[in-house]
Amino acid sequence: MDIATIRRTAYAMPLTSPSYPRGPYRYRGREYLTIAYRTDAAAIARAVPAPLRPVGDVARFQFIRMADSTGFGAYHGAAQLLDVTLPDGTAASYVVNMYLDTHPPIAGGRELWGFPQKLAAPSLTVAHDTLVGRLDVGPIAVARGSMGFKHREMAGDDATAALTRPGVLLKIVPHVDGSPRICELVRFSMSEVRLLGAWSGPAALSLHPHALAPVADLPVRAIVDASHMIADMTLGHGTVVHDYLASRSARP
């Protein structure tokens, strides 16, 4: 294989059989259980990397079911998010932790955008009259969330605004000597959103300590609200909003 061919075809590893196809990535019937809760402001400050600025004392925990996604197939996820403002003042959600149950979207999410994804066992199911989210890491129950199933219909505008809110990630790719080759904040967002349904209801959330899944570092103090949303949407490529290595010679 010549150098020109490598340059033309290389976009993901391994070269001869990439773990995922080229984007953008379309999701059909993507389903969220999102529980907002109050936590410790000091814990939020420790979790949010500068130059992002934390906003308030609310965290969000999501259980996600991806039934049909381009190239990635069907899988489940769980994520923990914090409200922040970007360096330009834009309101966004910083993804602190994320867990998936299959390899291709873990590889694609980490390599392309920098999603902080690790392998675990998240799920989102309906048990009689209750929407139930679970996150297990090995034999340990790390998170449990529940919400009354479709108790109150949400306004479509509010749901769409929540789904299209920008997200931000801390992407880190090491060099061969172990030093950082890429270290940057990446902005992403969902587009082409087609809302299929959105509801709110009573909810509960419990987070449990785990050495390698530190979601309980942002402890639950009080539930704020909860939502259940189903929508089609597209995840496009991201944009860099801050490059830490470009300014590494600057004084802290």
In words, what does this structure look like?
This protein has helices at residues 3-9, 41-47, 103-113, 156-164, and strands at 25-38, 53-69, 73-85, 91-100, 117-119, 121-127, 130-137, 140-148, 152-153, 167-174, 180-188, 190-200, 203-207, 222-235, 239-243. With 252 residues, the protein is mostly beta strands. It has one domain: Acetoacetate decarboxylase-like. Strands 1, 2, 3, 4, 5, 9, 10, 11, 12, 14 and 15 form an eleven-stranded mixed sheet that branches. Strands 6-7-8-13 form a four-stranded antiparallel sheet, with no helix packed on it. 33% of the residues are buried. The model has no long low-confidence stretch (mean pLDDT 96).
Largest sheet features: 11 strands, mixed
CATH architecture: Beta Barrel
Spans of at least 5 consecutive residues whose pLDDT stays below 50 are: none
Please report the first level of CATH classification, the CATH class.
Answer: Mainly Beta
Could you name the key traits of this structure?
about 250 residues, mainly beta, Acetoacetate decarboxylase-like, eleven-stranded mixed beta sheet, four-stranded antiparallel beta sheet, 4 helices, 15 strands, globular
Brief characterization of the structure:
13% of the residues lie in helices and 54% in strands. With 252 residues, the chain is mostly beta strands.
